[in-house]
Write a structure and sequence with these properties.
The complex is a heterodimer of chains A (about 500) and B (about 240). Chain A is of the alpha+beta class and about 500 residues long. Chain A has 20 helices and eleven strands. Chain A folds into two domains: about 210 residues, no CATH class; about 200 residues, no CATH class. Chain A is elongated, with a radius of gyration of 33 Å. In chain A, about 45% of the residues are buried. In chain B, a hairpin with a 3-residue loop joins β10 and β11. In chain B, α5 runs parallel beside α6. Chain B has seven helices and twelve strands. Chains A and B meet through α3, α16 and α20 of A and α1, α2 and β6 of B. Chain A: It comes from Pseudooceanicola marinus. Chain A: It is found in: Cell membrane.
Chain lengths: ~500, ~240
């Protein structure tokens, strides 16, 4: 019944209750000691007497608490930022290899050498009925440190939720840039081959791109990416561009419809070969149906626009011809429905041929490792806090000895033991509360600063925020140390009053 | 309310033997008693013993009908809070606080209902002692002013007994004279019993009786006006 009641509470109410439960020892000790007394002027006097020492204590406590809070907040910010970055990547299919490497390459755009997935597998993915988008990715080039990624226009729309300033590309030499790329719509650039210091700036001198669109901010590494047609990347590297030469010569707007094969022949595995026999007629028929299809991707219409701009000689986007598909390190798959991803993962996990994985699952494994690291660091942080608390309490015991005569005077004037304890405990607790609050501010501030640095370095939007975990940590620290503060409070009562007055 | 003091077989042990032995002493309520003797003679030990501050003291210290030494530590504390005000040689004030918070210090652990009255009394005493009002910390006060605050603190609780340990020792002569005047006046006006340890002849001269302690024993009990005391309130010489 209590469990049901608890589960029925709003989440914020559960969190608040847990924090109050953490603070309960502090509240109980405080109420017990302070009940019926008004020691505040004395507490203030004692705090003022050694103000610089007390300020040092507060600073030490703040740093130790801030470390713990910063650690938790930063880890959560990283986790949320990386999860946000992978949000659009429900399923990734690649050649067999390391899921983590593919994840880093495809989601976080970290350059790496990975095996390529062949055209037939890509074709099979693209033709699967439940697949809405099958976006091949092509890496290898960069411009001014920004990775140049080849893909299809539908993926650009999907990635940005169609929030594009300008337009998508309509030709091989057009590009769409991420929100944080240092280019403007209308600018032209020549990509370098490779990344970083080893990039060959003049390797692609013959290749020029014009920026035609800019994506809205996504808070992911893709904000720093330059997206171009995948065909362009292949062509720049001297590869076939994914389309049969005769198709390029006879290209018709209707051929551009990616869904045409699905509807025309119902997943005919030999369909690719059909291109050689009567590709044009085949595609035209499919196009007619596709226009009535609710899943018809907007790219189809762009192709129409493109042809209207007299780009008819450049087939752009799917379908690709498996025979002329140079290979792709990864295919980002968006299924019609979430449930379909599981079947797709099973279907495209083939030993020696392809592997399919959920980036979220790999990230979860990564978080588990991060969680272990966090746990280890949390223990270190807790040890630091305990040491600082012990140092502060020892310091307070020493300071208590300096107030020995005043304490003895209070007892001589008839102050009960509980009152004297209340004064010393309140002094310690005031330092602990001030240090903890300052530590929370420091922790959040440090996390905010660190998040900005990490965001700039990883291009992931990492937000620092104060969560209930941090508040609970601060509450537990406060409660434990305030209970321990009874020790200096008790220690001042050990000395005989008469000795104290004479000391 | 005033309290007489009756002591029987008081002994305060020390590490190397008794610090103080006192077979018998009776002081009437409202008496002003001075305590003199060389340093280390046992004067402060006597003062602490009759305030219940020496835990290992034995014998009987009867304030009215309450045997303080028979009480537990907390009962002694409660007794002091209600019945004994204390003045210390070096004032023992909280330097960071003003005159009123120091003078009304005992209000902090008194029941809420009594606090306001005690603070009013403390303010009245401070005004009567000529101390300026305001929040100025007592750290900036002169010695005389600080001891006046100490007196106000001892009297604010309206205790019937006042114990003073060298109240003028830290003051220059003029300040000491003024303070003695105030202390005696305020004590007599309220009919309080005062026992003051002092080397200050001017203070001792204003007392009803002066006890002399040496080597932990009482060697003389005299009245400045009439000489050696006999009869009621008589001191029995220690060890005799």
């Amino acid at each position: 019944m209590i469990r049901d009641l608890w589960d029925g509470l709003p989440l914020w109410s559960q969190d608040l209750s847990s924090v109050l439960a953490c603070l309960l020892p502090l509240l109980v000790v405080g109420l017990w000691l302070l009940r019926g007394f008004a020691p505040w002027p004395l507490v203030r006097a004692m705090l003022l007497r050694f103000r610089w020492t007390n300020a040092l204590f507060v600073g030490l406590i703040a740093v130790s608490v801030g470390m713990g809070i910063g650690l938790i907040a930063q880890e959560r910010g990283l986790r949320q930022g990386s999860a946000r970055a992978a949000d659009k990547f429900d399923l990734v299919v690649s050649a067999p290899g390391s899921e983590m490497t593919i994840l880093l390459a495809s989601v976080f755009l970290q350059p790496s050498d990975v095996p390529l997935l062949d055209g037939e597998t890509y074709d099979r993915i693209a033709r699967t009925e439940t697949v809405e988008i099958a976006a091949p990715l092509a890496y290898g080039d960069s411009y001014n440190g920004a990775p140049v990624v080849g893909t299809i226009a539908d993926f650009v729309t999907y990635l940005s939720d169609d929030r594009i300033e300008g337009r998508r590309w309509q030709a091989h030499d057009e590009a769409v840039i991420g929100a944080r790329v240092d280019l403007a719509v209308g600018d032209s650039f020549t990509p370098a081959h490779g990344h970083g210091a080893t990039a060959e700036e003049d390797a692609h001198d013959h290749s020029h791109f014009e920026v035609v669109g800019r994506l809205a901010l996504t808070g992911t590494p893709w904000d720093r990416a330059i997206l171009v047609p995948v065909e362009a990347v292949w062509e720049v590297h001297g590869l076939s561009n994914g389309h049969a030469p005769e198709r390029q010569a006879d290209h018709d707007p209707a051929e551009a419809h990616p869904g045409e094969h699905d509807h025309e022949d119902g997943h005919d595995p030999d369909h690719a070969q059909g291109h050689d026999e009567d590709p044009a007629g085949d595609h035209r028929d499919a196009a007619t149906q596709d226009h009535e299809d609710a899943r018809d991707p907007p790219e189809d219409h762009d192709h129409d626009d493109r042809h209207g701009d007299d780009h008819g000689a450049e087939p752009l986007g799917p379908p690709f011809d498996p025979a002329y598909f140079p290979g792709t390190p990864a295919v980002v798959v968006k299924a019609e429905a979430l449930w379909a991803n599981y079947a797709l993962r099973d279907e495209f996990t083939e030993a020696g041929r392809s592997m399919a994985f959920f980036p979220a699952t790999v990230l979860t494994q990564l978080y588990a490792v991060m969680g272990d690291v966090r746990q280890a660091m949390s223990i270190l942080s807790a040890v630091t806090q305990v040491l600082v608390a012990a140092a502060v309490l020892t310091g307070l015991m020493i300071l208590g000895r300096l107030f020995r005569r005043q304490i003895a005077m209070l007892r001589a004037l008839g102050a009960p033991r509980r009152f004297v304890m209340a004064v010393v405990w309140s002094q310690a607790s005031a330092l602990l509360i001030a240090g903890t609050l300052l530590g929370v501010v420091l922790g959040v501030g440090a996390t905010a600063g660190l998040s900005q640095i990490l965001s700039a370095r990883t291009d992931m939007l990492i937000r620092a925020s104060l969560g209930w975990d941090e508040i609970r940590l601060a509450a537990i620290f406060l409660s434990v140390t305030s209970v321990l503060s009874l020790l200096p409070a008790l220690s001042v009562l050990r000395a005989p009053i008469s000795d104290g007055l004479r000391s | 309310m005033t309290l007489p003091l009756s002591i029987r077989d008081l002994s305060v042990p020390g590490a190397d033997g008794p610090l103080l032995t006192l077979p018998a002493l009776d002081l009437p309520a409202g008496a002003l008693v001075g305590l003199r003797g060389p340093s280390g003679a046992g004067k402060t030990t006597f003062l602490h013993a009759i305030a219940g501050l020496r835990e290992r003291a034995t014998g009987t210290v009867l304030w009215g009908d309450i045997d303080l030494l028979a009480c537990g530590a907390e009962a002694r504390t409660r007794f002091r809070a209600r019945h004994i005000g204390m003045i210390f040689q070096d004032f023992l004030l909280f330097d960071e606080l003003g005159a009123l918070p120091n003078a009304s210090l005992t209000a902090m652990f008194r029941p809420r209902a009594e606090r306001r009255a005690l603070e009013r009394r403390a303010q009245g005493l401070l005004d009567g002692l000529g101390l300026p009002r305001g929040d100025r910390a007592v750290a900036s006060f002169s010695g005389g002013e600080r001891q006046r605050v100490g007196i106000a603190r001892a009297l604010a609780a309206d205790a019937p007994v006042l114990l003073a340990d060298e109240p003028t020792a830290s003051l220059h002569r003029a300040a000491a004279e003024a303070l003695i005047e105030d202390l005696v006046r305020l004590t007599r006006e309220a009919g309080r019993t005062m026992i003051a340890v002092s080397h200050d002849e001017a203070l001792l001269a204003r007392m009803d009786r002066v006890l002399t302690i040496e080597g932990g024993t009482l060697i003389a009990d005299t009245s400045p006006d009439t000489g050696p005391v006999t009869g009621t309130g008589k001191m029995t010489e220690a060890g005799a």
